[in-house]
Design brief:
By secondary structure, the protein is mostly helical. The protein is 85% helix and 0% strand. The chain starts with a helix and ends with a helix. The relative contact order is 0.10.
Length: 155
């Protein structure tokens, strides 16, 4: 009975991540309009156009790794939903998520120099923490797979 609950949670996670991917693609497409609205509502229209262009550039460059990270997460939750949590492909997915998180941390760290805000550094730190955690989970999954294979061989 517990297995069905976990599989149900994985399916719900897959649906939620899928919806986030769709929303992310819509935001990515509408980015110029969204940044213009943000500038109007935040009363930063008087800020140089170069600042708005820097914001757009950082968001465009970071959008692709974010969508890739979400897609990889979606694929991983599908595997977990099928009852295949401890398989080698999930270790690969976790390593890719870690790599995307490092890439995003670098993008936002560089973005700090183009924006007059501390928020890119905070976002970079969050992505670095995500990279470390997913790398630890990848190593944990790898060890669990080794134990699983060893256990199957002894029985």
């Amino acid at each position: 009975m517990q297995k069905k609950e976990k599989v149900g949670l994985a399916r719900v996670s897959s649906i939620v991540i899928g919806l986030i991917i769709i929303a992310g693609i819509c935001v990515y497409i509408g980015l110029p309009y969204i940044v213009k609205l943000y500038a109007q509502h935040a009363h930063i229209e008087s800020v140089a156009i170069s600042s708005q262009k820097a914001i757009m550039a950082i968001l465009y460059v970071s959008g692709i790794p974010v969508i890739a990270l979400l897609t990889i997460s979606f694929l991983m939750t599908l595997n977990i939903g099928r009852g295949q949590a401890f398989v080698k492909v999930n270790v690969t997915y976790l390593n890719l998520i870690s790599l995307m998180a490092v890439l995003l941390a670098v993008i936002f760290a560089v973005g700090y120099f183009f924006l007059n805000s501390v928020f890119p550094i905070i976002i970079a730190i969050v992505f670095l923490l995500l990279a470390v955690l997913t790398k630890v989970f990848a190593d944990l999954f790898k060890k669990a797979i080794e134990y699983k294979i060893e256990n199957e061989l002894t029985i």
